[in-house]
From TrEMBL, chain A:
Keywords: Membrane, Transmembrane, Transmembrane helix, Transport. Belongs to the binding-protein-dependent transport system permease family. It is a multi-pass membrane protein. This is ABC transporter permease. It is found in: Cell membrane; Membrane. Signal peptide: none annotated. Pfam families: BPD_transp_1. The keyword Transmembrane helix applies. GO terms for biological process: glycine betaine transport; transmembrane transport. Residues 28-211 form the ABC transmembrane type-1 domain.
UniProtKB/TrEMBL annotation, chain B:
GO terms for molecular function: ABC-type quaternary ammonium compound transporting activity; ATP binding; ATP hydrolysis activity. This is ABC-type quaternary amine transporter. It is an enzyme of class 7 (translocase). Keywords: ATP-binding, Nucleotide-binding, Transport. InterPro entries: AAA+_ATPase, ABC_transporter-like_ATP-bd, ABC_transporter-like_CS, P-loop_NTPase. It comes from the Bacteria.
Amino acid sequence: MYELFKNLAKWLVSGDQWAGTDGIAHRIAEHLEYSLLATLIAAAIALPLGLLIGHTGKGAFLAINLSSFGRALPTVGLVVLVFLVSGLSLWSVYVALVVLAVPAIVTNTYAGMSAVDPEVKDAARGQGMRGHQVLFQVEIPLALPLIMTGLRLSLIQVVSTATIAAYVSFGGLGRYVFDGLAQRDLVQVLGGAALVAIVAVVLDLALAGLQRYLFLPHSRLRSSGRDPHRRTAAH
Amino acid sequence: MTICRPGKGHLMIQFDTVHKRFPNGTTAVHDLSLEMPEGGVTVLVGSSGCGKTTTLRMINRMVDPTSGTIRVGGKDVLEQDAAELRRSIGYVIQQAGLFPHRTVLDNIATVPLLLGWGRKKARARAAELLETVGLAADAGKRYPHQLSGGQQQRVGVARALAADPPVLLMDEPFGAVDPVVRTQLQDELLRLQKELSKTIVFVTHDIDEAVRLGDQIAIFRTGGHLVQCATPADLLARPADDFVADFLGAERGLKLLSLQHLADVPQGPAPEGGAWTLVLDEARKPRHWRATADDAELPVRPLKDTDSLLAALNESIASPNGLVARVDAEGVLTGVTSRDDIHEHASKTHGHGTHGTASVAI
């Protein structure tokens, strides 16, 4: 066991492993490309959907049940299915990852929107805000913490699942896992898995930091006492 | 059907046979005709589910009527753009409904910003309003959750006043604060109203609040029926039916006295040589009552013309000889009034109140 971890550590830090098109740096870049692009596409689909359902209150059933649907869906099966239909193409990977990412974003966006105090929305309308003004000036800012939670959840899921790209012959950190399995090289399998986990955690922390910094002026004020509007306001 | 016509001054808001039935079949407002004079406070009062809030919300089109016409400043509200109409009408709701993610200043500046005033002008106006509603300037930089309930409610009023609308709608604005703060907020509203003379529509379920604030009171009964609409004095003196009488409560007579001023009650010269003498200082201001027999002193609380009959009655009971010392604005003695005079005047107002009531029951 000790030997295994020693070899794993050696594998992770060796300069040879990091260089070249087969190297870790390149594989991380590929992995990030699949994950970020898939999450972006998913967000482009899921955010408007979640916001629409949350704003109008119509289709709440869909928003609530979509996440269980997403959980029940076998991703590998989906990849293989799309792979069989579309042939040797990255499409199969992206379709599977987007389908995986959409439900959590929709459900959390809807949850965030429906958690906005109805009195506040009523007051916003009563002051003379139009529908889009209520949405962008009141509902979205107040729903942002949960919207961000949905994005983070999806991104982590996508990062860990993007290993399947290697299953259908493409790159990413999954290469180490599948190649390692084929070669019965346990160190390589573990190394790939560890890298996936590290990438996922780092991305999540980065998003959490961004969320803290950008989107929560009222809670930021509570902790630091600064006026978050000072930067933009003409005093 | 009950029609309320105050019959004097310009009418700011007119309901003409307005009916509201919700999709689930409940009738919230039943054939309502009601007029609200410019610069006056109309209080809509009744138990919950009587349609008073729906009535209020139809004025700024938060709810649209099923039939009938509502005019604000002579214009049919249904012919106006709902968002623009709402920006021209101040709206205060229970719990204030402030935006938790915006500073107090930005909350107040909401409508000016929607009207396109520009950030600088809107904030200057918001800062001015902080003072108007009695908040410190540094409260502007805070967030709503950092304020007390009473302070939040003041911000709610400031936000409604920001674009200087002629009409102010207030939906149980003081319902969620404790009685002491509520009284303060009511006093502030009366003070503001003296300065600003807005047309105010105020919804409450508290009859005491209605009597304190209203120039006219409209009482609603479950099912959206307007039962009676009259000035507080008329309402207290002559409730239209048992429902209204019950709603006004057992102390209806005392409430009425609290609305009557002492001004019309006759006064005579202070008595000399009785059992008690009113002692004055050099400026002829009352100091205390002194007993002729043993020089004992009792405090005196002189009353002005603007004090209520209720205060006079209270003072006449506390006074050793049933006499109330009357003073002018400077506190100089003008005369005394006996308990009998107060009683007589009180019963006279009760009698006269039966005429001149503004409600007509059909």
